[in-house]
Design goal:
33% helix, alpha+beta, disordered N terminus, binds methyl alpha-D-mannopyranoside, 249 residues, binds calcium ion, 12 strands, elongated
């Protein structure tokens, strides 16, 4: 793991945020999270699941989980109320393992709380605000592009603000066109892939766009020297931008 901003790498695990002491001591004692192997990981989860199933039977319905993932990490996120930080951490470790990211780059975030919080993006992804961005170099249809993002635990980019639009256009090629996570299933109903509500006041269509009912996917590119969006045919092959939440350690 690469950690930016010169810090002592022995630091990251030593001073984990305060935890529900009784549940975490066994993990701390066994060489900290970074070195937990798959077997102890699975055993830990199974024990946790049994124990918490009992607790939840007593307490009532489970809290909703925010991501759809493998069974193990799903099991963890179900108990997020009780072990929020730690189940999150374990989830992320599982994702990182599953997706074969070759490395993480992390920066320290100045938290209002006392705990040290590191925010991380996979190597080759660009951080901005609370997200990480990956610019594809190959071209594909909108559906294929979204599938590729999805296979990396991400989705096509959702642009929510002028700041985000400016951030991404500064690092895109001016001679290329990129699919974003905006499409129209029909009747000119624009939808963001991650269910973010489509807010007309934060859109960056080129003048005169969107203009054709059969152009049901949005791409971002330079037209007359300005960055903006155009509705285009979903089957055309374009580059694309994937986006995912930062990983917090
Ligand atoms: C024009 C314009 C766009 C449309 C493309 C399709 C070059 O731009 O009508 O709105 O999407 O053609 O190729
Ligand atoms: Ca168009």
């Amino acid at each position: 793991m690469n950690l930016k901003n010169n810090f002592d790498s022995s630091d990251i695990n030593v001073d984990s945020p305060p935890a529900p002491q009784n549940k975490i001591t066994s993990l701390k004692g066994s060489h900290r999270f970074a070195k937990i192997n798959l077997t102890s990981f699975i055993i830990f989860f199974l024990l946790l699941k049994i124990l918490l199933s009992i607790v939840l039977l007593i307490l009532g319905p489970q809290p909703p989980h925010s991501m759809v993932m493998g069974n193990l990490s799903q099991a963890a996120s179900n108990y997020s109320v009780l072990f929020k930080k730690y189940s999150q951490l374990l989830e992320e470790k599982a994702i990182i393992k599953e997706l074969n990211f070759t490395g993480l780059e992390c920066t320290k975030r100045h938290s209002l709380l006392k705990d040290k919080v590191w925010s991380c993006c996979p190597k080759d992804w660009k951080p901005f605000s609370s997200h990480c961005y990956f610019i594809s170099t190959d071209s594909a249809s909108w559906n294929e592009s979204e599938e590729k993002c999805s296979s990396m635990g991400a989705h096509l980019m959702v642009i929510r603000s002028q700041e985000e639009q400016d951030f991404i256009t500064k690092i895109l090629r001016r001679d290329a066109s990129y699919f974003i996570g905006l499409s129209d299933p029909g009747h000119r109903q624009w939808r963001w892939v991650d269910q973010t509500p489509y807010n007309k006041s934060a859109t960056f269509w080129h003048p005169g766009e969107p203009n054709k009912d059969h152009e049901q996917c949005a791409a971002i590119y330079v037209w007359h020297n300005n960055w903006g969006w155009n509705d285009i045919s979903c089957s055309t092959k374009q580059k694309s931008v994937c986006q995912m939440m930062k990983i917090y350690l």
